[in-house]
Write a structure and sequence with these properties.
Length: 740
């Protein structure tokens, strides 16, 4: 219960430590206060350290979490303080733009920069204070990373994640109450960053053994101590316990001190971080929302543990490796087979393909460091050959199995599989192949390259996440069952979910029977507005799935009900099939061919040019514009995709510059319609379908559950392309049947 309180960080500050490694370790940190009530002590710390002109820097989130309270304490103590709160619609990126904004706002008389936040704010303030020859202090808002006391500032320069050597803070302040209130995602990011020390410390030790790199056992033991204490309390982190958050932050700070003692990030960053940096760079280049660094490190850790586990079972044929490498040619290159990462021409093509606009920076790094030099590789191979039994034993003694780490992470609520964070497993394979190029640092990724194992291990890592990982699969099933316990009604998409075209999936009947056996209900909902309810009832009857009208919902009915309530006297011009017109007419809509109040666009399989021309003219004249649903394509037999309502809307947009307001999935009106007609609460409803932007998006931001089936339009590798994720992803309804 009290073991974690024994972390004594202050023993490492304010003095020189003569180490058995032969170096003298010291840090610029003069004060560390991580405990309850640290906010109230902030102004006293500032004055005790002799500062009077404070430049407080935060972003919108850290300002609300801790910055406002910090500023109030300084104001109360009459400490002069100017502020910059970054305003960003998306995540703050530590790039040239952010640095420039800081530089412009930097007050000339500042004697202390107060960074309120964690990773990005810390890096920016570390750099800008160093550049302006001013000290800085960090007021932590979340226990999310280990860079609080490090001397390296991780910036994104020319699209490349680059760590610049700067200076450390004079103080680290963290209020346990504030730290515990941080989003759970940030807390688990700190856990992931800490557990990543398993592989980075082994990388460091092997770099010392194989590559002759500097290594300090005392520094490594500091990090191991932090790692062990965090592991012991990991379950409490998921409960956002203040004492656990305090201990995690202390462990992260201790790791940062270790980095400052070593003079670089070696004690805290290895292969798991290289994988994370590669993913982060790719996300930024593709304009995708960033994932917290420590969360990516957690996935990188699991990946790296799997790589090391496989490596420990290898018996490399060193003689064959020497022969396949061949002698150095006169131009300094080595003869290698085609499509080999050891062939310089192929390697450069791969770097340009994988790193895109950041490739030039990666190529320049190799030109500077020559880490892939063949002569150096041969020397490393010679060392590995002589020490291979020792290396294998070291791997087995130093690391937990991937499954052990996965259990710790999952217990705290952290992800362990790429799909949990929308990371395509293809990017895992790519990262194992080329992520080593982001740094000049010897890790297991470089060992795999040396042993010509990168390609094979990359594929194996991808397969592990796609088809293996039993701990995660079991955990996933448990979580899915818990999620399904509350579900009373399944809203089932039709095409691509229960059938494809006119072919019923073989597992559909069993699923429907199981739903009823468990006392739940199901309804069918199709966005397809080209047919009416009776058409679908007859289709299901032909497939021997008898149902009743009360269980069949369509997007046409949703918009019809809305029009009846909100536009009872307005006239409508319909671009749609006779079936859609019939639904609208029967609901009381007044359909006209000229001068309508509203234009309604549906999935019109009877479309002719005259309809589009008239609709465009009516919109130009000011008619209200509604779309029945936004589906771009409609799947049919043989994997063919027909242009659907959304595609027709795109055509109209090119003419009119307008897009309609939609009413089928994912519109809120659809969920409200289901609630009214089933009598279920929002949190008792589960939408099941094959299309992300309709079937899954309809539940986004609500209490309803979203379940993606992979039997229709969406493929697993496409999930990462969306800014939201399904609550559940299953291969088919057959998986749901098993879970029920």
């Amino acid at each position: 219960m009290t073991e974690y309180r024994q972390i004594d960080i202050n023993q490492y500050i304010g003095k020189q430590i003569r180490c058995s490694c032969g170096r003298i370790h010291e840090t610029t940190v003069k004060c560390i206060d991580i405990a309850r009530g640290a906010t109230q002590r902030l102004a006293a710390h500032v004055r005790e350290l002799g500062y009077a002109k404070i430049f407080l820097v935060a972003d919108q989130n850290t300002w609300q979490a801790a910055g406002k309270a910090a500023a109030e304490e300084l104001e109360k103590a009459q400490v002069a303080c100017e502020k910059l709160v970054f305003q960003r619609e998306d995540d703050l990126v530590p790039d040239e733009i952010a640095v420039g904004e800081l530089e412009v706002a930097f007050p000339a008389d500042t004697d202390l920069v107060l960074a309120v936040g964690a990773g990005t704010i810390n890096d920016l303030c570390k750099f800008i204070s160093w550049k302006n020859h001013v000290d800085y202090m960090i007021f932590a808002s979340a226990p999310s990373m280990d860079g609080f006391t490090s001397t390296g500032a991780a910036l994104v320069l020319h699209h490349v994640k680059t760590t610049l050597e700067t200076h450390g803070p004079v103080a680290v302040i963290g209020d346990a109450e504030i730290l515990a209130k941080a989003p759970l995602e940030m807390i688990t990011a700190g856990l992931g960053d800490t557990l990543g020390k398993y592989t980075c410390l082994l990388d460091w030790k092997l770099a010392h053994r194989i590559n002759g790199e500097y290594y300090c056992g005392e520094i490594a033991r500091m990090v191991e101590e932090a790692l062990q204490r965090v592991q012991a309390l990991s379950a409490r982190l998921g409960q956002q316990d203040p004492e656990a958050a305090e201990a995690l932050t202390k462990a992260l700070v201790l790791t940062g001190l270790a980095m400052s003692f070593a003079g670089n990030s070696r004690p805290a960053s290895g292969c798991e971080h290289h994988l994370s940096h590669f993913w982060e760079m790719r996300y930024q280049m593709e304009g995708r929302k960033s994932i917290l660094h420590g969360i990516k490190v957690a996935i990188g850790l699991v990946t790296s543990l799997k790589l090391y586990q496989m490596l420990a079972e290898e018996e490399p044929d060193f003689e064959a490796l020497k022969q396949s490498a061949g002698a150095l040619q006169q131009d300094g290159t080595v003869r290698a087979g085609e499509d080999s990462l050891h062939d310089p021409a192929f390697w450069e093509r791969e770097i340009r393909r994988e790193y895109k606009e950041a490739a030039d920076g990666i190529l320049q790094l190799e030109q500077k460091t020559h880490k892939n030099d063949e002569a150096a590789r041969q020397k490393r191979l010679a060392v590995m050959e002589a020490a291979w039994p020792e290396i294998r034993q070291l791997i087995r003694e130093s690391l937990p199995a991937p499954e052990e780490a996965e259990k710790i992470l999952l217990t705290a609520g952290a992800p362990v599989n790429p799909e949990q964070i929308g990371l395509h497993t293809g990017l895992v394979e790519e990262a194992v192949r080329v992520a080593k190029e982001v740094r000049d640092r010897y890790t297991v990724l470089q060992i795999l390259w040396d042993l010509d194992l990168s390609e094979r291990f990359a594929k194996a890592a991808r397969e592990y996440f796609e088809e293996g990982q039993p701990v995660y699969r079991d955990h996933q099933k448990q979580q899915l069952r818990k999620q399904l316990e509350k579900t009373r009604c399944f809203v089932l998409d039709m095409d691509g979910t229960i059938y494809l075209g006119n072919e019923l999936f073989p597992f559909t009947r069993a699923f429907l029977e199981k739903v009823e056996e468990t006392g739940r209900q199901f309804v069918f909902f199709t966005n397809n507005s080209s047919k009416n309810k009776q058409d679908y009832l007859e289709k299901l009857e032909r497939m021997q799935i008898p149902t009743v009208p009360e269980k069949m919902y369509t997007s046409s009915e949703v918009i019809a009900e809305y029009l009846r309530a909100e536009h009872p006297d307005d006239t409508c011009y319909v671009v749609g099939t006779p079936s859609l017109e019939k639904v609208l007419r029967e609901s009381g809509c007044r359909l006209v061919q000229e001068d309508p109040d509203i234009v309604i666009l549906g999935f019109d399989t009877t479309l002719v040019y005259e309809k589009l021309d008239k609709a465009s003219r009516f919109l130009e004249q000011g008619a209200v514009y509604y779309g029945v649903h936004p589906d771009k394509v409609c799947p049919v037999e043989g994997k063919h995709m027909m242009p659907d309502c959304g595609a027709m809307a795109a055509l109209m947009e090119a003419t009119t510059g307008q897009l309609p307001r939609y009413f089928g999935k994912p519109a809120r009106e659809t969920l409200d319609y289901v609630i009214r007609h089933t009598g279920c609460r929002e949190d008792e409803i589960a939408f099941v379908g094959d299309r992300m932007y309709t079937d899954i998006a309809v539940a986004e931001g609500t209490k309803a559950l979203s379940i993606l089936v992979l039997t229709g339009e969406t493929k697993r590798e496409e999930l990462a392309e969306y800014p939201y994720a399904p609550d559940m992803t299953v291969e088919s309804l057959e998986t749901l049947t098993e879970l029920l």
